[in-house]
């Protein structure tokens, strides 16, 4: 079945009142963030200082280009600036959402991994009412391994597209400048040539020992090179906080024969598990804040 023509897809979105309302809300908040950053840089005269955030860098780059060219139009228009800032936000939140879906599914299948996460939290004194700090998160080595293994076993991007910038020959295959490559991420993540421990097995401990340092580009859940995912750091930070807070307070179980918890893949912007049916219980050791 042929894909829907792009012009039809755009027309459908243009006529979708809910989508347009959501877009207006997003545009309102993103443009407010941009204008506040522009005002801050103007007041503090920080155009020449090194930006400390991604948004500050984008705003400064646009303004510096405008000043250098002497043009009233910067290289990044307000619309382009909106697109870039929106992308960084969506990339961070969408990837975290997909990763958490896989976390719930995989934890329901691997209660032993849940138990090890909870043990690590207790060893560091991170009870359910503890305040998390960046230093606490940095100490959670096993949680980090679980995150890496989820993103290896079930990558949130099914494939990565790249374009050749010059002619080349790879394994006797002639590549022309402009050729498009489709890199199947999951195939790379499960190729036994690049992993010491069985790559078909969900095993977070691989990142403690044999597979601690994977072959370059054999593991790239967020892509690689200078075009790596712009929301990578935000996504990983959110993911680690979410896993920690969840494992401080709940227990995840497979729903058994009551429903379909077989997993599978569903492709949207990112890859989600298709069939998930779990039970979630409050951990009897958890103390919720008053």
Protein architecture, described:
The protein has 290 residues and is of the alpha+beta class. It folds into 2 domains: 6-76, no CATH class; 87-282, Cytochrome p450 (Orthogonal Bundle), CATH 1.10.630. The protein has helices spanning 6-14, 17-44, 54-69, 78-109, 111-123, 134-138, 141-153, 185-189, 232-249, and strands spanning 159-163, 168-170, 173-175, 180-184, 250-254, 263-267, 271-275, 278-282. The strands form 4 sheets. It has a two-stranded antiparallel sheet with strand order 1-4. Strands 2-3 form a two-stranded antiparallel ribbon. A two-stranded antiparallel ribbon has the order 5-8. Helix 2 packs across helix 3 and helix 5 packs antiparallel against helix 7. The longest helix has 32 residues, at 78-109. The radius of gyration is 23 Å and the shape is globular.
Topology of this structure?
Elements: H1 6-14, H2 17-44, H3 54-69, H4 78-109, H5 111-123, H6 134-138, H7 141-153, E1 159-163, E2 168-170, E3 173-175, E4 180-184, H8 185-189, H9 232-249, E5 250-254, E6 263-267, E7 271-275, E8 278-282
Antiparallel strand pairs: 1-4, 2-3, 5-8, 6-7
Helix pairs in contact: 2-3, 2-4, 4-9, 5-7
């Amino acid at each position: 079945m042929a894909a829907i023509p792009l012009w039809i897809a755009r027309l459908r979105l243009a006529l979708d009142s809910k989508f347009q309302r959501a877009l207006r809300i997003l545009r309102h908040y993103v443009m407010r963030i941009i204008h506040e950053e522009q005002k801050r840089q103007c007041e503090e005269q920080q155009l020449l200082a090194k930006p400390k955030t991604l948004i500050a860098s984008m705003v400064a780059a646009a303004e510096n280009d405008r000043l250098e060219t002497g043009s009233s139009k910067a290289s990044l228009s307000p619309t382009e600036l909106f697109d870039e800032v929106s992308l960084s936000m969506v990339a961070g939140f969408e990837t975290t959402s997909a990763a958490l879906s896989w976390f719930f599914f995989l934890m329901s299948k691997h209660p032993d991994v849940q138990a090890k996460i909870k043990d690590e939290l207790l060893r560091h004194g991170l009870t359910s009412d503890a305040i998390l700090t960046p230093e606490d998160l940095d100490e959670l080595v096993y949680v980090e391994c679980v995150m890496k293994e989820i993103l290896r076993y079930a990558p949130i991007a099914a494939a990565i597209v790249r374009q050749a910038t010059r002619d080349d020959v790879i394994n006797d295959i002639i590549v022309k400048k402009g050729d498009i490559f489709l890199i199947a991420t999951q195939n790379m993540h499960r190729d036994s040539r690049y992993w010491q421990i069985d790559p078909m097995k969900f095993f977070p401990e691989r990142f403690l020992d044999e597979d601690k340092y994977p072959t370059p580009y054999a593991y790239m859940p967020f892509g690689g090179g200078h075009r790596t995912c712009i929301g990578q750091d935000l996504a990983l930070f959110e993911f680690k906080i979410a896993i920690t807070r969840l494992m401080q307070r709940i227990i995840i179980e497979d729903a058994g024969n009551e429903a379909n918890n077989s997993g599978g893949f569903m492709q949207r912007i990112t890859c989600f598990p298709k069939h998930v049916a779990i039970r979630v219980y409050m951990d009897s050791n958890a103390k919720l804040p008053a």
